[in-house]
Amino acid sequence: MAAPQIPNLNTLRRAPGHAPGRARGGPSSSNNEEYEAAKDKIIQQTDQDASVSRLSAVQLGYLDDPFADLFVVGQSQRRFPIINRGTYVRTTAIDNLVHRFLSVSPSQKQIISLGAGSDTRFFRLISHSPSFPPFLYHELDFPSNTAQKIATITRSSVLRDLIPGEPTTSEDLTSLSSPTYNIRPLDLRTLDPTSSTSPPVIQHIDVLLPTLLISECCLIYLLPHLADAAATYFTRTFFPASTPFGLILYEPINPNTPFGRVMVSNLAARGIVLQTLKKYGSLEAQKERLRVYGFDGGREARTVDNLWEGEVNQDEKERVAGLEMVDEVEEWRLLAGHYCVAWGWRDGDGEAKDKGVWEGWREETGK
């Protein structure tokens, strides 16, 4: 589940109302499984929202991504200028953190992307691989999303040729394995330690490598205790404390403002419930969350507006501003103030060669 489209401002201006044809009340016990499956499908489909938004930003020149069009199903759609700018800021902010993680020290590293869907980050990174030390990349998502992505890769020689080695797929075509890049079907709810079943085995992850976990609007769809369980499964159970470990989150915040209430209402009308938004609805709550997860090396959280104002240099601002006219600056700032990127890390107590893994993040956090 890659990050969904930033909500349409025309939709957000509409007063909260009733979704046409939307049934009232919860499901009966007889069709509860069908109801839950339908809710899961809605969340899984947000991946295409993200792909369309990315392609819109690419086609207009905000972002350089030669792989974006390969993952869009159907026709491309031009998003509103403030949505394109939001996609640009989110993407470049996360890319900056990922690049700093990979490039600061020469040791091999590892990235795990939760709810990756049709995200193109691995292909963008590997196409610039001479710039980075060796790395492993893992993507985890619902089986329907991993199957769709693997099918896209299988059809595209451009994508296949970028994967080192000879990738293999499982019989059901939901899993892909290679020496560098792995796609695995996984329902993150199965990582709940209170479950009666043991968590599934996630193959080919090296628990000794410095590791970065990425969640772009993924954990927010889980009930708070399940989101926390999934994150701490990686930080406390799966990986030893000696492994340097970091986390990047991209999520909406500020649900209790007038704008936030309308945003939540309109997403709910589409069947999209942001489960952790109430618990982690501010920058301070996001930073405290990272502390509780065990990231004692450092923590930071900034709104998309903060990132645009403070991280994008003036020349780049002028370039982006020249792509499209954003004549509703107040609405842009309002929208951008309701999304954030948060990150945190722990140094681990392993070998000295790994101690510099987060120096780039320390520099970024100290700005």
In short:
The protein has 367 residues and is α/β, with parallel strands linked by helices. It has helices at 9-13, 32-59, 81-103, 121-126, 143-155, 157-162, 224-238, 258-269, 283-292, 304-311, 314-321, 329-336, 359-365; strands spanning 109-114, 135-141, 168-169, 176-177, 181-185, 211-216, 245-252, 298-303, 339-346.
**How far apart, in Å, are the first and last alpha carbons?**
31 Å
One letter per element, helices H and strands E, the order comes to HHHEHEHHEEEEHEHHEHHHEH
Q: Could you describe the largest sheet, including whether it forms a barrel?
A: 7 strands, mixed
Query: What structural class should be given to the helix and strand makeup?
Result: alpha/beta
Point out poorly predicted stretches.
1-27
Summed up, the helix count is: 13
Shape: globular
What is the percent of helical residues?
40-55%
